[in-house]
Amino acid sequence: MQFTVRVMGRMSGDAVAQRTADALGIFNSTPQFLSNERWEIEVVLPDEAEDVESGPDGEIASAWELLCDSVGDNGSGVDADEAERAATADLERVRQALLDAGASEVLIEALEP
Predict the structure, then answer these.
(1) Phi-psi category of residue 95: left, alpha or beta, with phi > 0 → left and psi -120 to 50 → alpha
(2) Is the distance from CB of 113 to CB of 23 less than 8 angstroms?
(3) pLDDT grade, residue 111 (50/70/90)?
(4) Bridge partners for 45 per DSSP
(5) What is the pLDDT of residues 8-55, one digit of tens each?
(6) Residue of 101, 81, 82 lying closest to 21 (CA atoms)
(7) DSSP3 helix / strand / coil % (the chain, rounded to 5)
(8) DSSP strand E in the chain: where?
(9) What is Dmax (Cα atoms) for the chain?
């Protein structure tokens, strides 16, 4: 399953990546790309971002996107509905972590397969 998470509110990309990694229990060594056994996530600036500036913690902008691919449990026998519920719960934890970090709004959109 694929999702796009839109993050609004002036934040650094590194902060967005670190809060996302913390919420999902991912060790974050490469800020733009996060992955574990369940997720592959890319942190990107959306096309409409116009107010990007460099700061001590990397690029700072008023909007970010997380391109999320749930790679699932790879044959562990988990059905599709259960996998979708788990992915939704994971992304809800990410949403809350980003709101706690100062995002003004976080929208989660499931993409059609």
Answers:
(1) alpha
(2) no
(3) confident
(4) none
(5) 999 999 999 999 999 999 987 777 899 988 899 999 998 877 788 887
(6) 101
(7) 30, 40, 35
(8) 2-12, 33-35, 39-44, 53-55, 58-70, 105-111
(9) 46
